[in-house]
Amino acid sequence: MSDRTGAMNSAQNELNFIRNMKRIREAQGLSQGQFAARMTKEFGWDGFHQTTISRIEKGERPVRLGEAAGIAEALGVEVWKMLLPDDASKQLANLESSIHTARQLGLKLGQNVGDYMFYQSAISDNLNSLQELTWGSEGYGFDKDYMAKLDDLKRKAKVILETSYVDQISDFFEHGYADRDDLET
């Protein structure tokens, strides 16, 4: 690599750093003053002022190596990511965000599956209790409206008990969020 190529890479790295610094700072909702205050108060960079941030972002002042590490830390980003070209940096951030979101949704899905299975068990237990309570009781003190409601709930419970969570997910993709009479009790 020639000295000229090294100098061009160095200049491009600094430009990338500055662009990413500004983009990430703004994405975090921080003004230059707020970011300078964070650098000073939270990360111990005495004398780091809004004007310092402004001059760096305008390319009027170079970023020193130690400052680069401090700025990256204050933004919650690794230094090497700050050196990526703008598009690559955005794509990397989007990928990281998508992975994080997918993991969170996977955890929620697992929790929802567990809840679904728990309530299937609760439905089964409640049905068994009601079956014992009302067994042979047609005409023995339970009014017709109660028995009709119980029969309707038994029908709905049977559908849920016979439907696996995989079938429920498939049904969701087939029908979506549409209001459905069969979901009401």
Helices, strands, pairings?
Layout: H1 3-27, H2 32-41, H3 50-57, H4 65-75, H5 79-82, H6 86-134, H7 144-161, H8 165-175
Describe it.
This protein has 185 residues and is mostly helical. The chain folds into two domains: 3-84, lambda repressor-like DNA-binding domains (434 Repressor (Amino-terminal Domain), Orthogonal Bundle); 105-183, no CATH class. Helix content is 74%, strand content 0%. It contains eight helices and no strands. Helix 2 (32-41) crosses helix 3 (50-57). The longest helix is centred in the middle third of the chain and has 49 residues, at 86-134. The radius of gyration is 31 Å and the shape is rod-shaped.
Query: What portion of residues belong to β-strands?
Result: under 5%
Number of strands: 0
Radius of gyration from the alpha-carbon trace, in angstroms: 31 Å
- Helix segment count? 8
**Mean pLDDT, nearest integer?**
86
Total domain modules: 2
CATH H-level superfamily of the largest domain: lambda repressor-like DNA-binding domains
Q: Quick one: overall form?
A: rod-shaped
Query: How far is it from the N-terminal to the C-terminal residue, by CA?
Result: 73 Å
Query: Helix-strand pattern, N to C?
Result: HHHHHHHH
Helix content class: over 70%
Structural class: mainly alpha
Jot down its keywords.
185 residues, mainly alpha, 434 Repressor (Amino-terminal Domain), 2 domains, 8 helices, 0% strand
Summarize the structure.
This protein is mostly helical.
